[in-house]
Design brief:
With 317 residues, the chain is an alpha/beta fold. It has one domain: 3-Layer(aba) Sandwich (Rossmann fold), CATH 3.40.50.10680. It is globular. The model has no long low-confidence stretch (mean pLDDT 94).
Length: 317
């Protein structure tokens, strides 16, 4: 596929978003790619500022991610983690040595008054990325999960409790839920070609981004083609607890529910060929549908799905 022109925004969470992100990075001019990344998962741990979704995207685009787990660094070591365990530290969140170095660097920069956006851009540059990775905000916005085990932060729910508690409600807590100037600027850029919602968990990865009113309003009012990629195939999560959460919230776990969830933000949705029976119902909502094989098991799959997304944007425009 020839490198196209026109800026693309991709809303991304962690592993699923990074997979499509890598595909886009491989088939599209990377300097035209702008990733608005979820920071609702961010938290302070052992005195460090951890930004899991931002780091997963950076590591994946740079080709240094752990391809087996989907998170963390390849060829990681765990000496610090093991010593912390020996010291009796509450180290339920696994931090590898390479990963920890990045957290040290970011935490120091934040204490020195730098913005999360500028720190992230510096890190991306040091990994030689030409794409732009933008945290959704420079302000802390925390995903709070109301469960049968009480109120939990995202990481307590997802990692410490292994997504086992039953979810009753999800909310987003922030004293200043404002997008960065860079996010606002790219959303209003006249050279914007389209907006992509990656196949990340809608409720835990994309909704935190859309919880920021100015981002939500900009996407709702955008005249550029807006396309989502379904995070579920034939009623099952590609990865993570998406369908579990849907069931617990009383929602039917299918692509029609995903389309309804995004109906104010999209013009089209890419779904798996196994879900073709839903095409007519989705189209009756005024949303165009593209069928594709959306399971991304390898780099060729990621490129193919990315190509389908870009072609779909071209078709809608």
């Amino acid at each position: 596929m020839n490198m196209a022109s026109g800026k693309i925004i991709a809303l991304s969470g962690g592993i699923g978003g990074a997979k499509l992100g890598l595909g886009l990075h491989q088939i599209y001019a990377p300097e035209e790619l702008y990733f608005i990344t979820n920071t609702g998962d961010d938290f302070l741990y052992l005195g460090f500022y951890i930004a899991p979704d931002v780091d997963t995207l950076v590591y994946t685009l740079a080709g240094v991610n752990n391809t087996e787990t989907g998170w963390g660094r390849a060829d990681e070591t765990w000496k610090t983690h093991n010593v912390l365990s020996e010291l009796g530290a509450d180290n339920w969140f696994k931090l590898g040595d390479k990963d920890l170095a990045l957290h040290l660097h970011r935490s120091k920069a934040l204490r020195n008054g730098e913005r999360l956006t500028s720190i992230t851009q510096d890190i991306a540059n040091r990994f030689h990325l030409k794409a732009t990775v933008l945290p959704m905000s420079d302000h802390m916005i925390q995903t709070v999960v109301d469960t049968n085990k009480g109120l939990l932060s995202f990481q307590e729910y997802f990692v410490k409790q292994a997504s086992k508690p039953k979810i009753k409600n999800i909310s987003f807590k922030s004293k200043n839920p404002e997008p960065s100037a860079e996010v606002t600027e790219i959303l209003m850029d006249p050279g914007l070609k389209g907006i992509v919602i990656c196949p990340s968990n809608p409720y835990l990865s994309i909704d935190p981004i859309l919880s920021i009113e100015k981002i939500r309003q900009s996407i709702t009012e955008s005249k550029r083609p807006r396309v989502a990629v379904s995070p579920i195939i034939n009623g099952q999560s590609v990865k993570g607890p998406t369908t579990k959460i849907m069931n617990e919230l009383g929602l039917e776990a299918n692509v029609l529910t995903i389309a309804q969830h995004y109906k104010d933000y999209i013009d089209g949705i890419v779904i798996d060929t196994s879900d073709q029976d839903y095409v007519e119902q989705i189209e009756s909502m005024g949303i165009q549908v593209k069928l594709s094989e959306i399971m991304m098991n390898n780099d060729d799959d990621k490129k193919r799905v990315a190509e389908d997304v870009i072609h779909f944007i071209d078709h809608i425009s």
